[in-house]
Amino acid sequence: MKIKYIIGAIVIIAFGIYGFNSFKSSITPYVSIDDAIASGTTVQVKGVRGTSGNFDVKANVFKFTLEDEKGKKINVVYDGAKPGNFDQAKEIVCIGEYKDGTFHAKNILVKCPSKYQAMEAKA
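^ thats the sequence. predicted structure below, dont judge the formating
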């Protein structure tokens, strides 16, 4: 009877370790632009848009400049359409990696003013 509990505990621990390692590999850290340039791995970079961007319809590529809080800028290329609320964004998070002098974003997250903020009173 005792051996069943030991085997069960080993199986649970093994699945726990496997799950932790799987989760750990999917975590993408937030880094500065300088760290993103140096890392060579997939990272998240947060900033504001430096330019409004240029969307190439034929190539389905969106290019823009991202600026961090220190004023450092990086060119971003995203293989996809410009997010609909990009121009109203307060903050932009780009997930991807830096290579060949450009940050290649796999995903763009746009933080816009909250739609739940109190509306100004009509006078």
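Residues 2-25 form the longest helix (24 residues).
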